[in-house]
Amino acid sequence: MALAVAIGCSAFADGMTSVEINGNQYTNINKVYVGTGGKIIIFFDGGGTSASADKVPADFLASWNINKETQDAAKAIETQNAEEVLERAIQLGCFREIDGVVYDTRKPQSGWTIFAKAKIIQVLDDGVILDITPDSYSYFAAHVKNLGNAVGDTDTISFTAKLTGNYSYINKNGDGRTIRDYDVGRPCSRDEIPDSVLNGIKAFDILASAVTPAKNIIASLPESDDLKSSGSGFFITDDGYLISNNHVVKNAAKIRLVTSTGTIDAKVILVDEANDLALLKAEGKFSSLPIATSHTVQLGATVATVGFPEIVSQGFSPKLAKGEIASLSGIQDDPGHFQISVPVQHGNSGGALVDEHGNVVGVVSAKLGMAIGQARTSDELPENVNYAVKSSFLLSFLESVPDVSAKLKEPITVDRKFEDVVKSAQGAAVLILVY
């Protein structure tokens, strides 16, 4: 939050009304003052501009009664205001600690979600279970920690929380249930907040008062301060074409891949927003996976994915998840998706769903895998269910790119050991960093 400081302005009638800055001439000037960061703010008929003080002629500044003293005064006021804003943010609990890391929740954070008007279903000793989409016919149930004591059953609240994994419990009928687990975090005192976060250099960092600081794994990444999010992907050609979800790379200014040989750049070639697919390209030689049609996939078939969930807490090494095809259609009988019992988390988005032969039969879409519930009339919270885009839709998407479709590997039909399937999926999997 920046505050402009106005010192020296149009009250001085003898101020010069024209000036040349960086080769540009400005006329009919009617207001000049010192702004945030010591910038000189200049208004003229029909618009305005700003420039650092060293770029503005001294005689022009003097005519508007702007000198070193007024600039120093402006900086002092700005510093005082910034400190007041920071102190207020600390008091309001904007700095939250989760697992030894302090987050400035005023800034965008990877893995954090804003929930509006969520309805509390039940208050537990270790958190609350709530419906995070109370206005929908079907609901998303989630467990949330650190919401505070001022909540009760049926309350409606809004908050921001970080996805931390899954939460399992036994319902009133004695049945086991697993839903998403979120954490609002613990508010931090000033001495717990690391200087890098207090000064606005980083959006998160290791807790300042930690006796044994945890490893800040994100800091080891290139341009870590600019990292917005991460996801999974997999190579489909040996010369560097790969697949992920569209929602993983959407609005990315830069994309990088973490591979076994280092971090490399990638670019988006084509997207299919309707089916949440994205085709990317990186330079180099890679191991790739064959794609099989999803038409032959049977209910109950064993499937698996290798991806990169929750890299802040779980690290960069690939993680295996295994399950079955739970339904041949997605939410509300969507024919473009499989429902899968594979336990996926934030960061698995875009990973390959492979069959027992090692063929891609789907693309994991964690965007839909939010423990989607049963009808609101049910008295039970939903099981943990997830979804994957069917490979037949992926093959149709790739047909529009002949340079790719011509290079796809033939599906594997021979039986393979599961260990070999995992090895090939791991070799083609890649961590996607979005900036």
Overview of this protein structure:
Helix content is 15%, strand content 37%. It is α+β, with helices and mostly antiparallel strands and 435 residues long. Strands 15-16-19-18-17-27 form a 6-stranded antiparallel β-barrel.
Alpha-beta classification: alpha+beta
Low-confidence stretches: 1-13, 367-382
Largest sheet: 6 strands, antiparallel, barrel
Per CATH, the class of the largest domain reads Mainly Beta
Q: Provide the gyration radius in Å.
A: 27 Å
Mean pLDDT rating: 84
Shape: globular
Tell me the strand order in the biggest sheet: 15-16-19-18-17-27
* CATH topology grouping of the largest domain: Thrombin, subunit H
Total domain units: 3
At CATH's second level, what is the architecture of the largest domain? Beta Barrel
Ends distance: 22 Å
User: What is the count of helical runs?
Assistant: 8
Beta content comes to: 35-45%
Using DSSP, what is the number of strands?
A: 27
Share of helical residues: 10-25%
What labels would you give this structure?
Thrombin, subunit H; 435 residues; 3 domains; alpha+beta; 37% strand; 8 helices; 27 strands; six-stranded antiparallel barrel; OB fold (Dihydrolipoamide Acetyltransferase, E2P)
Secondary-structure map:
Layout: E1 19-21, E2 24-26, E3 29-34, E4 40-44, E5 47-51, H1 58-63, H2 68-91, E6 95-98, E7 101-104, E8 112-124, E9 127-131, E10 138-145, E11 156-170, E12 176-183, E13 186-187, H3 195-198, E14 204-206, E15 229-235, E16 241-244, H4 246-249, E17 255-259, E18 262-272, E19 277-282, E20 302-307, H5 311-314, E21 319-327, E22 337-340, E23 352-354, E24 360-364, E25 372-375, E26 386-390, H6 391-398, H7 402-405, H8 418-428, E27 429-434
Parallel strand pairs: 10-12
Antiparallel strand pairs: 1-2, 3-4, 4-5, 6-7, 6-13, 7-14, 8-9, 8-11, 9-10, 10-25, 11-12, 15-16, 15-27, 16-19, 17-18, 17-27, 18-19, 20-21, 20-23, 21-22, 22-26, 23-24, 24-26
